[in-house]
Amino acid sequence: MLRLRDGNVWLGLAGCAFAVAYLWEAKQIIEPPFVQGMGPRAFPWGLGCIFFFLSAAVALTERDPMRKSGPVRVAHTTMMAGVMTAFACAYVFLLPAFGYVLASVLVFFATAVVARSAWGAAAVSAIFIVVIFYLVFDSFLGVPLPSPRILQVLNV
Amino acid sequence: MFEALGYLWFGFEQTLTPFNLLMVSVGAFLGTWIGMLPGLGPAAGIALLLPVTFGMDPISAMIMLCGIYYGTMYGGSIASILINTPGDASSVMTTLDGYPMTKQGRGGVALFTSAIASFIGGTMAIVALTLVAAPMARFALRFGPPEQFAIMLLALIATATLIQGSLVKGLFSMVLGLMIATVGLDLQSGSPRFTFGVPELFDGVSLIAILIGVFAFSEALRNLETILVGEWTVHRKVGRLWMTMEDWTRSRWPIVRGAVIGFIIGVFPGVGAMVATLVSYSVEYRLSSRREEFGHGAIEGVAGPESANNASAPGALVPLLTLGIPGSAATAVLLGALMVYGIQPGPRLLTEHPELAWGVIASLYLGNIVLVILNIPLIGIFVRLLLIPAPILNALIMLLALTGAYSLGNRVFDIGVVIVFGILGYWLRRFGVPLAPLVLSVTLGGGLEQSLRQSLSLSNGDWLVFVERPISAILLAFALLVVCGPVLSSIYRSHAMRRADVQAVAPGQDTPYRN
Questions:
Q1: B188 — contact with chain A (CB < 8 Å)?
Q2: More confidently predicted of B382 and B111
Q3: Cα–Cα distance for residue pair B316/B91, rounded to 1 Å
């Protein structure tokens, strides 16, 4: 019987679903007409099948190490990790619009505050560290870090 | 012997330029700082600092990366000893006695012992690497596609099964990595696979972005949890720095034994530094006349594992430089770095790019010396980094990961890859799925598939090609043994336990469960 409160069941089921989607996509791979040996579809197809069975084994046989931590603490910290990931996702959109310095300062500040840093310390550290990173990557290593879109429009 | 010394001299000629000496010093220095950051081990440290080397020639870049490798290993020990936070799995054993030493006010001695043990263990292992590299590469030249496939499969399966934890989850992680490696244009037919029409995926998913995501970004998420539950602690008292004569007397043989154990275990792909430190610790425990001190600040418990840890690094370079097989997650990143520079590691590396291979080996000698010269006087200063408030340190790690990802190809797409694989790494760790097999599979997956298809192409689709050739047959038999061994031993153990239970309860007597 499936232990639905055990995270491994969900990991295994997610693995099975991923394997099915992978196999479906593998079916779409175009095989060249004359293949000597193995074509481009066979290897992924084999991997998808093996992964499906391994995922099923995870769901049916494994036990969840997470359950030792207790539900309340795990839920809170996981939510905070989700918030931090959301900041990183926002960075993907902020970086081209606001440029490296402003986007990085915002994300650094928000990430530090989520981890219960004092606001002032987070703000000062964000500005200091981002300026150092900018100097190292852009000026020293020659990586062209993006500038704000408004400056690009104004051709500054 | 003399041949090896000649090659080594050639390596020193490549390395001993002012710029390369600067790079190995900078690499060791930066690596130590990065390695000290909780959660960032050698693999993550090299991956994070890889973009720094992009403007350099391959020799200087690899020399710097090797310096970073050694530096991160030593830096991880500093965090283990001072704040009980191992940089990676290989530093875990150091915490068992290093952290109690810090609590006793002997943190300085533990750090000094760690530096000396790392230096001696590392140097002994590099000498061994110098002697075995050329003969091993000559042997590896006999390898065709079937043998390459067999040894890559053995390395992956060994990684998936020999690491601690569940066998099923190790294999799950390995196959997931192989699936990720299939993304991109097929090299033989040109057919797009799993690209979904996204041009950025035509070359496959960026290996370095995956590494940054799986190691650095997911560690930042985990560190956040540690901070929020209040488990992040710092001990400020470091105490005396130098070892006494008694400390040295107690440490010298554990260091020598650790070096031998570390090098031998490091050579086996997938076994890695963690197992080396574990074996070294258990050997020292068994041989010690002061067993009661272990776990409470025994200096042998720091000296042996630290020596084994640094000795396993040159050991892991043996299969990388001679076979193109990374022996650990960190050497998988080094393999990725070589590929970024258009160099294919393998048996021909020592003949086609001797300046690079022997330059790397020579740089290990220099890196080891530089590391000990730089780090012993700086121990007091390093400790200050750990006093940075944890939330700021964590935000710094995340921003470093995101900026490093952008710098790979100056595109936002790679930041997205880092985030996706960071989330994946975070959840896989939460469920106890090991990440090393995933990373090694992503690195080796392309080569594994190509060698499989080339073998079948050469044999007109006959699968017997893998068992008709003796080397590949032996390697595949080993792979089978590695998979079946744990399963058979667990069946045998449970059978033996059942028999013992039956014998313990004589017929007619009551069992403990019967009233």
A1: yes
A2: B111
A3: 16
